[in-house]
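Friendly challenge for the regulars: who can give me the structure tokens for this chain first? No prize, just bragging rights.
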Amino acid sequence: MGVAKAHTPTISVERLTRFERTDLSDLSDAADSAIEAGGGFGWVKPPPRHVFESYWKGVLLVPERHLFVGRLDGTIAASAQLVRPTRNNEAQAFSAQLMHHFVAPWARGHGLAKLVTLAVEQAARDNAVGMINLDIRETQIAAIQLYEGLGYTRWGIHPHYAKVEGRMIRGFYYHKFLDPAAEADNEAALTNPGDAP
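First reply, four minutes later:
Bragging rights claimed.
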């Protein structure tokens, strides 16, 4: 009798620009399970399916939003959005937000969270973004460890960031320079504030 080989899952990350086959359903299912596990992105309880599907379809229509998904054996199991400032916001055009990042509980432990984050960072660099900002609930310990491990700097704490099940939760604010030269310029400006315009 032969010994069964352990299955090695295939993992991939991509920017999603249109839904094919079961993508919309898979993405909604993954987000639903992440919200139920406390890793939601604004929602405390999953919305009705038609609301979720409308939300995801809307994300693809907004020019400043880039939707990234992580797949486990071809099924969408993780997601994040890179959100650029609107065109009239020239003062913050150098930066972008990493938002709505999650991994479905059944897909955790395969490195998808890190791979999706790195894909968002690379897309930001490719679009001349010099800094990524993000904010997160203090209860999302694994995500905080991930971001700090990838070099994100916590710069602030909001004491009343979110309310979940009647309890106020703090929020942590992070940033990361994607261009080492820009980071050095910033450090020099902070050291010599009189030289700043």
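The radius of gyration is 18 Å. The CA atoms of residues 12 and 71 lie 5 Å apart. Your move, everyone else.
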